[in-house]
C-alpha cells in the first residue's frame, strides 16, 4: 500500500463490521504492539475470533494476515519513539535469557540480509567504488560507527576517501560541494532515518555522482536517490539499534573491493607494517618482548 496504512484503515472504518471496527481501532491506537501480535493474539486482545482478524486483513487489501503484519512492522520502523521502542523490547524480550534472544535475532538478521540483498547491486557497487575518483561516506548518529568503520579500511585502499562530518548542515554541504560525476557517494542510514543523510544524497545525485545507499528497505528515503541499494536488516523495535547485519554487509563490501585492488593493497599493507613496527603502533607479543629483554641483558 502506497498510502499510509493507518490512514487507509481509518478511512475504511465506517464500512467495517462491529468486530472489524474493534480490530481497526486497536491497530490505529496501538500499531506498535499490533505489529508483533499473531492473528490469534490480536483477536483475543480485542475480543474477536482469529478468522475475523484474517478476514480483516483481506478486507483492507492484503493476501493474508502475515502481509498485514509485515506492513505494520515496516510502518513502525520510522514512527516509534525511543520510549515506544523500549516498551516493544520489554514485550518481546522479557527478563529471561536476553543474551540468547538477542544473538539469535541478530543471526536471523544476517540470514535475511543474505537472502534479500541484490547480488547485482552488490557487484555494481564494488565496481563503482573501484572506478571512482573520490569516495564520500556519510552516516549519522548510530550509523556514524558504520561510516567510520568503512572509511577506516577504505583509507588503506584508496588515496581519496572523505568521511563527512555532520556536526551541522552547512558544514556537511561545504564538505561535499565539489562532488561530481566521477565520484561516488556512500550513504548509510537506518530507522529512524536521518534528514541530513537524505538531503546529502539528493545533493550528490543532482551533481551527477553515483550514489550507493546502505539501508534497510527499498522504501527507505535514501533508496530513491541510489544507483545501487544494498539492504541489510536492522531491528529498530529495540531501543538499541542492531547494526550486526549492516556491519557484516559492509565487511563483505570491503572484502569485495579489496579483491579487485589486490596488488595495490599488498604493497600498501607491506608499507604500513613497516610504519607500525617502526613507530610501535601495536603491542608486541609477550614472547617477542621477552626476547627483546634478553637481548638487552
Automatic annotation (TrEMBL):
GO biological process: carbohydrate derivative metabolic process
A UniProt-annotated Pfam family: SIS
Molecular-function annotations in GO: carbohydrate derivative binding; DNA binding; DNA-binding transcription factor activity
Alphabetized UniProt keyword annotations: DNA-binding, Transcription, Transcription regulation
Domain HTH rpiR-type: 3-79
Domain named SIS: residues: 125-264
Top-level taxon in the UniProt lineage: Bacteria
Protein name: MurR/RpiR family transcriptional regulator
Organism: Youxingia wuxianensis
Organismal lineage: Bacteria, Bacillati, Bacillota, Clostridia, Eubacteriales
